[in-house]
Structures are given as C-alpha cells and as structure tokens.
From TrEMBL:
It is an enzyme of class 3 (hydrolase). InterPro entries: Papain-like_cys_pep_sf (IPR038765), Peptidase_C19_UCH (IPR001394), Ub_carboxyl-term_hydrolase (IPR050185), USP (IPR028889), USP_CS (IPR018200), Znf_RING/FYVE/PHD (IPR013083), Znf_UBP (IPR001607). This is Ubiquitin carboxyl-terminal hydrolase. PANTHER family: UBIQUITIN CARBOXYL-TERMINAL HYDROLASE (PTHR21646), UBIQUITIN CARBOXYL-TERMINAL HYDROLASE 22 (PTHR21646:SF33). CDD domains: Peptidase_C19D (cd02660). It is found in: Nucleus.
C-alpha cells in the first residue's frame, strides 16, 4: 500500500473510519478504535534527524516518522512500545516484535492479539496513596478482583434507597466502572476515603490503620447499604441477609460445647466473614506440629522441618479446647456447672474465604508484630475442617476422609495482602490474580508483573480464596 497524496489527506476535523481512505490512515484506524484523529502529519520527514530518505517509516499508533536505516523508528518503537510501522516507500508493514515485515492477511490476527492483550489488562489500575491509605488501597484491589462482586457491580444491579453521595455501594459501583474502563492512569479514590471516614469514624484521619480492620468495616457498611437491592430482603432469620455481600463473604461457624460429665453437646452456629488464625511466636500457646505423616500432605503444602502451614493454623483453630475449671458452663443435662470442651468447625462455607493471620499482637505488656513465615497453597481443600468431617478427627489429629471427590469445599487463591515493616511504621501491598495464572503486585499506584513464587514466598497477612465450583439456584 502507498501513502495517500498530500491532496487526498483528510482535513483535521475529519472522522477516521476503519473503512475509509487507504494507505497508512486506513491501517491506523483499523488498529485503533474509530475515534477522531486530532493530529495529521504536515510533512513526511524523520522527526529526529529531519531527513526524508533512509527508508522512512511511519508509526501506526501515533503521528511519527523515523528513519529505518539510522534506526530512529526503532528507538521510537522501543520507547513508546508502538510495535508496528509502515514502510512509506514500499508499503510493507514492519513488526518490531518479530523484527520482520508482515502481509495483509496477518493484520486481522495481529489486531485480535492486540485486543486480547488489552482485555487481559482490564481491571489492572493503580490507586494513589492519599496519605497512609495503603491499608485501603490493598483491600480495594482484592475486592475489585473478586469475580462475583465484579459481576454484580458491572451489571448495575444496585438499587439505591439512599442519597448517592452518601452510599458506599454507589461509590463502589463507580469504582468498578473506573477500574474496568480501560484507563491505565492511577485512580484517585478520594470519594471512597471520604465515605469510609463518614461511615466508619474509627478509621478517620491520616494515621496508619489496619487493613483487616478496614476490610471488616467496609463489608459491614456495604452490607448495610445493600438493603435496597431486590436480593437483600431479610428472611425469617433476623440475623441472615441475602445481599450480595453476605452471599459472597458470609459463612456459618459451628461451636460445639461438650460437657465432660454427661457428654451432652450444646451447638450454636454464628455467621462469620473471615477467620482469624493464631501464629507460632505469639503469647498464645500454639498447637505443636505433628512430627510427620498426615500433616505433611494436607492440601499439598510444602511442610519443611519446623515450618508452619496454613493447614496447621486451621487444624489448631478447629481442635477441641478444654475450657478448664475457671470457665465452667451450666450443662443442660446435668443442670449444674461443669467443665467442658469447645470445638469450632465450619457448618457453611462462604464463596470467598478470607483468612486473617494474626501478625499484630496487642496486650497490656506487649505490642509487636509476629513475622513467622506461614506457607499457604494455591488450592485449598476445606473438607477436613467441616462439621460433617468432625468424626474423622480424633484429638486434633487429621485423618484423610473416605470421600476425596467432594469439590464443594475446594478453593483457589486469588489475592494476598502483605505488610512490610514494623507495627509502628509499615506499608501494605497486595498480590492479585488475573485470568487464572497471571499474578500482579499492587503497590499503591504502581502495578508490576509477579510470579507465583513471589506470591507464595510472601509473608502473608490476609489470604483470599474463591470457591472453585459454585451452585446456582
């Protein structure tokens, strides 16, 4: 193809349509969306040396001419990442990625690849730190990459009964639109910060805050502001709501208190939106790791000598605990106060399971951060910690259940929040999963590619897992 003569160049206010014109203008408009071209080339000379020879090439992404012989067009392609240019003498299109000329039949495939790459980057957007607001930014990144929450907000299903400038759900809807708009510049979440200060006053101010505390506060406010939606109508149970927040994040925790005299069991089920796990090194006595055998293979975690895994923390969380003589309860069978044991198990699992590793210890005598490394898997099976699997555990020791094909309790990791630094001075970052196997590190306004090893080697503060299989009514 050849460049259009100067007399045929469309005026500055002409619309660049993908099926109008010919030559470089047609190719440029095919590779970009059919929007108005604000600039037109006044002359065909190299923008670096001013020459009109040396195999002049034109960039197909912007108005730029450069010498191919002197590699001025190469420098432009490298600095701007504009990987296609057209030879103005012979009309061939050159790809700087494969370093070769391509034919017309390849252009459709190239355009599809460019579109596919742009689609994969959807939702990746940095957030400006407004002054010690990294605790908010990392949680926002995790929430915006929660699949069902993303689908809800992008489908405009929220029906607000509040003033839009005071509704956190409306602001989150706008935030999702910003994240998936295709814009790459960092977003400034000043409205979100203002609403958080308004509805969770304990988080107001520019002091350092806890990311876990912000997550709990944000989910609570979102839950309260979702009451106008059709699917949030209260059921016969006043403690249960069917809003999108509860559907995704709320599970049921079963507590069994067993009398040590008559062995009667008192059972209660309470809602939970996260599970806080004690770590070795805290002032709380930690359940010693089993010396070998079953503990080394649960959930496929690497269990080095002396190391701690997420499964260890969950086994400790669900083990029977003797309450002691100082915490006697009144037994319904004995009709008197007796010693008892208490055991927690999962009655109902949420779609998104959030595990909070208790790294910050606050007591009357001690305030510190626990830096114990805890390994966590990419895929997690919660079957051993279900109430239905209680009979397969004896004295806190896990035994492999007979039913290993139950997929309802299997999860995949999709976000990790980390804390670097000390209790007094620290910084929050997050890893998020994009399209199954791609991971990115979000550090406020900066987003960089990450490897699975980077994710699994991180210290871990909040771990977000999503169910692999969902049931629909």
């Amino acid at each position: 193809r050849t460049l259009m003569p100067q007399s045929e160049v469309e005026p500055d206010n002409a619309e660049c349509h993908p099926h109008r014109g010919s030559g470089v203008w047609r190719w440029r408009s095919c590779l970009r969306s059919p929007t108005r071209c604000l600039k037109r080339a006044k002359s065909c000379i190299c923008h670096m040396c001013g020459a009109h020879l040396n195999r002049l090439h034109s960039c197909l992404y912007c108005v730029f001419f450069g010498c191919f012989t002197k590699k001025h067009i190469h420098e432009h392609a490298k600095s701007k990442r504009h990987n296609l240019a057209i030879d103005l003498l012979y009309g061939g299109i050159y790809c700087f990625v494969c370093q070769d000329y391509i034919y017309d039949k390849d252009m459709e495939q190239i355009a599809k690849e460019e579109q596919r790459k742009a689609w994969k980057m959807q939702g990746l957007r940095g957030l400006i730190n407004l002054g010690n607001t990294c605790f908010m930014n990392c949680i926002v990144q995790a929430l915006t990459h929660t699949p069902l929450l993303r689908d809800f907000f992008l489908s405009d299903r929220h029906k607000c009964e509040m003033q839009s400038d005071s509704c956190l759900v409306c602001e989150m809807s706008q935030l999702f639109q910003e994240f998936y708009s295709g814009h790459r510049s960092p977003h400034i979440p000043f409205r979100l910060l203002h609403l958080v200060w308004t509805h969770a006053r304990h988080l107001a101010g520019y002091e350092q805050q806890d990311a876990h505390e912000f997550l709990i506060a944000a989910l609570d406010v979102l839950h309260r502001h979702c009451k106008g939606d059709d699917n949030s109508k209260m059921t016969n149970n006043p403690n249960h709501c069917n809003c999108i927040i509860d559907q995704i994040f709320t599970g049921g925790l079963q507590s069994d208190v067993t009398c040590q005299v008559c062995h009667g069991v008192s059972t209660t089920i309470d809602p939970f939106c996260d599970i806080s796990l004690d770590l070795p090194g805290s002032s709380m006595p930690f359940w010693p790791l089993s010396p070998g055998g079953d503990g080394n293979v649960v959930n496929g975690e690497s269990h080095l000598s002396g190391s701690t895994t997420l499964t260890d923390c969950l086994r400790r969380f669900t083990r029977p605990e003797h309450l002691g003589s100082s915490a006697k309860i009144k037994c319904g069978g004995c009709h008197s106060y007796q010693e008892s044991t208490k055991q927690l198990t999962m009655k109902k699992l949420p779609i998104v399971a959030c595990f909070h590793l208790k790294r910050f210890e606050h007591s009357a005598k001690l305030r510190r951060k626990i830096t114990t490394y805890v390994s966590f898997p990419l895929e997690l099976d919660m079957t051993p910690f279900m109430a239905s699997s209680k009979e397969s555990r004896m004295n806190g020791q896990y035994q492999q259940p007979l039913d290993t094909l139950n997929n309802d309790n299997k999860y995949s990791l999709f976000a990790v929040v980390n804390h670097q630094g000390t209790l007094e001075s620290g910084h929050y970052t997050s890893f998020i999963r994009q399209h199954r196997d791609q991971w990115f590190k979000c550090d406020d306004a900066v987003i960089t590619k990450a490897t699975i090893k980077d994710v699994l080697d991180s210290e871990g503060y909040l771990l977000f897992y999503h169910k692999q299989f969902l049931e629909y009514e």
